[in-house]
Each structure stands twice: as C-alpha cells, then as structure tokens.
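Mods, move this if it's the wrong board.
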Amino acid sequence: MGRINATDLSWSVKGHRLLDNIDLAARDGKVVGLLGPNGSGKSTLLRLLAGLRRPDTGTVEYDETNLRDLSRRILARRLAVVEQDVTAHNHVSVRQVVELGRTPFRGRFDALTEHDQQVIDAALSRVGIADKQHQSWHTLSGGEKQRVQLARALAQEPREILLDEPTNHLDIRYQLELLELLGSLRVTCVVALHDLNLAARYCHHVVVLDHGQVFAAGPPETVLTAELIRSVYGVEVLVDREPTAGTLRITYLAATTSRTDATVVAG
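Not the wrong board. Structure tokens:
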C-alpha cells in the first residue's frame, strides 16, 4: 500500500486559476472520494496527482518521495490511472488491452512471462470480464470498456489507483461491484464521483471541491451535510440513515433558486 500527499497545489490556464491551494491526503489502503459539481476541478486534480500536468505551485508526494523525482517507469510500477476516455484500443482484443498493464515490468521486446499471464488472468476475473477476453475491444459496451480499463489498472499490481468517474456507463450492479472491489483491494484509491450516496457508502474520506478550491474534507458522515450540499450543489436534500444497512443516505428534494456563496473550509 502507498500514500499520496498533495500540498498547496495550484494550476492555471492563460492566467485563469482553475485549482487553488489544494491539500489532499490519501492514506494506506483507503478510498478517497473527490466530489463536486462539474467544473469544480476533479479531473484536473487527478491529472496533477498522476503527473500528467505540472502544478503552478505545490507538491505531490508518493510516500515521502516527490512526484518530480520519480521516473515515468518507476511511477507506472506503483500508480495506475483509470480515465474517463476509453475510446482507444479499437483494433485490439480485450486481453491485449489488459496486457498493457504489464508494460512497466517488461523490456520493450520481452514476451509476457508466466507470472504476467497469471496476473492478467486474475485481473480479468476480478472485474468479471474474463468471458470476453478474446472479443474485440470496439464491440464492447461503455460499461464493459470501463471494467476492462480497471482490469488493465489491476494488472499493474499498483499501490495506488486514480479513477476519474469510473461508475460512468455502468449499470447499478456493476457500480456497486466496482466500488466494493476498490474497497477490498488494499490499494490506496482516489476516485472522482458524482453520486453522493455511493461516496457516502464506499469512501473512507471525501474531499469536496468547489470553484477549484477545497470546500470541505473529512469522513462522509461529517462532510456530507444538508448545508454543504445546498451550498455546493444548489440542491435541498434530506440526510439520514438507510434503515437496513445504516449507511448515510441523501434524498434529493428540490433545486434551490441559486447556490449559496459560502466560506471555503479545508478539513
């Protein structure tokens, strides 16, 4: 397992500050949910954490090592990234997509080892897509492609995974299975989510972004209040407990006339 720490991250485009003074801590084996409206900065923050963009200010550390001091190959041996865009790989099979997860552990012309094949088999089985492994990628549904992308990530045997809206295109069953899987992996996960009820049920810690800043952070039970949801999302809600499982439950009542301006609180 690994740890991700981001301190004072800021990022701008053409002088417009999109992320400002972001702090985030993802601890060993925990699932951290990134929440916030569209345009709040979730995807941008994930790209900074992955090293796909360089921040204007601040640092990202994996364990105690600055991201800038990690080579791309070393980083790829510990970090997997599952992005929203799954349009690539049109002319390859499902298994070949998952095989890409073993790339950081092989020489350029090396064949897959027996261990590689076993890891790939396990990843395909874990996401429930093994029966389609010889099927062409472009014949899959959006949800199936998402599961294959997760299998590719698992094939990296990562210590950390960053996921950008991984429940998009998935039906309810696979949304639940995917998030239950993340919680069982003993891998540190940072996952951007829209569904507040899924975040409340499966995330150990949530970070709520609004207008590129951390509005609040902490356990879902303390962060996901009716007042916060009204301020950040502009929606009136009822927050209570689901009577059977006892998990936090958010019932949407009505959109407010406007979002409430509120002071940014970093937890």
